[in-house]
Amino acid sequence: MVTYYLTKASLASLGGLESSGAGSSGIALWGVLALVFGAPLGLLGNIARVPGIGGLFFRLLIPLVAFYETTMRLETESRGPSQVVLATWTTVRFTAVAVAVALVGHTAWTWWRSRRAPSAEAGVGP
């Protein structure tokens, strides 16, 4: 993060990028945000590792946030003339939906297999 803003600030000073948020105040702001939100978001990431339905909601957070953010960006940036931007955000949205469907499908498949396995073993005699 610090490297990103330092690179952005150096490129902005060369006239290569717009300088919004690239100064030391931007670095300080993102540093404080990382300090405040780092532990709670790390906890959510750890909960997402819980197998099955228990962690599904937390695994779905990333594709849901990606879909929501790109939808908001698409509304503002689609007014511009760039078809590349429009195609990029549309691709991200479709990918987010595909990942969410895959996560739900994988969780359902795992749950179904775990429910089926004990009943199959119960029918097998010694």
Helix content: over 70%
Mean pLDDT: 78
Assign the structural class, choosing from mainly alpha, mainly beta, alpha/beta, alpha+beta, or little secondary structure: mainly alpha
Counted by DSSP, the helix tally is: 4
Radius of gyration: 22 Å
Strand content: under 5%
Number of strands: 0
Low-pLDDT stretches: none
Shape: flat
Query: What distance lies between the first and last C-alpha atoms, to the nearest angstrom?
Result: 60 Å
Sheet having the most strands: none
Strand-and-helix sequence, N→C?
HHHH
Provide keyphrases for this structure.
mainly alpha; flat; 126 residues; 4 helices
Descriptive account of the structure:
It is a single chain. The chain is an all-alpha fold and 126 residues long. It is built from four helices and no strands. α2 (24-48) packs antiparallel against α3 and α3 (56-77) packs antiparallel against α4.
Helix and strand topology:
Elements: H1 2-13, H2 24-48, H3 56-77, H4 83-122
Helix pairs in contact: 2-3, 3-4
Write a compact overview of the structure shown:
The chain has 126 residues and is mostly helical.
